[in-house]
Design goal:
By secondary structure, the protein is α/β, with parallel strands linked by helices. It has two domains: about 210 residues, Spore Coat Polysaccharide Biosynthesis Protein SpsA, Chain A (Alpha-Beta Complex); about 70 residues, no CATH class. It is built from nine helices and twelve strands. Strands 1, 2, 3, 4, 5, 6, 7, 10, 11 and 12 form a ten-stranded mixed sheet that branches. α1 links the parallel β1 and β2.
Length: about 290
Amino acid sequence: MSKISLIIPVFNSSKFIRACLDSIINQDYQDFEIILVNNGSKDNTLFLIKEFYPEVRVIDNRENLGACTARNKGIEIAGGEWILTLDCDTVLEKDFFKKLVEFADESEGDVGMFQPKILQMDKKSIYSCGIYLSNLRRFYDIGRGRFNNGKFDKMRYVFGPCSAAALYKRQMLEEIKEDSGYFDKRFFFLVEDVDLAWRAQKKGWKAKFCPQAICYHFGNASNFNRKIRQYLCFRNRYYLMIKNENIRNLCTKLPFLFFYDFPRVFSLLLTNAYSLKALREIASFIKSKNNKK
């Protein structure tokens, strides 16, 4: 049984996947398995995997089921004590696994999520040092766009890790798993890592930032349409609050949320054709939650 199981969803990822896998295979630390989940790629991604990386385990979905379902399928067959979710457009430093595993092994038992330092591909600016969730339930990648100038070189507790490169304790994932999966498949992709972290926090689990473990991330490798990303981000934020917010807290925040969100909702209705679809799905989500009570 491997110490780490890597779960990598791919969707038309031939441009990025070789650099990603080469950086994994060349790690100093070698106690890992790689599980690649193909989400209906139409390019030569699968050919490249089979031709050059026969050691990689492949799950082949005939269509794009979303990052959540892809990761769930990978986790279900994984044998590792730790699960590392990794986007296909990431490249790891040679000592990435060694530093991350040492950090995880030295941490307390209630820490079940670990965030490495994710830099942009320019190696100068930050992509994510973890997730921050505000009182208005806006979520941000800590340090996004800031220069990597030493300010983000200290260990800290964070709300959760960004799933582009996130280490999860398998024990924790099994404890918080829902009918909709480890990652809630209803989110498809975007915001699902915030939801998972929130569920884990409610169960008493914590998340830590490990600045010594460094990787690089291109971002939006799937080249999803901007309007669709906007729609998913908007919809999934409300899914997130409906699922996880304490009803009393939500009621106290409603006036602030209204004045904060109303201009954004109005703007989306005018500029994004998917907005009405999002509102219908949010209403259906509320109804399904109420039916479970």
